[in-house]
Please model this.
Amino acid sequence: MAHNVTFRIPERRVGNSDIEIAVREDGDLLGTLGISKGALLWTPAHKRHGFVLEWAAFDRLAREHGRRAQAG
Model:
């Protein structure tokens, strides 16, 4: 299960247009992650509607279900 997620830009504020990141697994589109000032939007591949997660909810989800990353 190889995920291919790459993106790098100079730091700047998210403006009026959301950032969209395509996430692929073994070459197939897994879904699209939309990043806005107010929330995250996960839209699974081949679906019209996604799932919204506000930043505070994302923080709680990551702390409760994520694993701690190594520094660096």
Summary: The chain has one domain: 3-65. The longest strand covers residues 28-35. Residues 55-65 form the longest helix (11 residues).
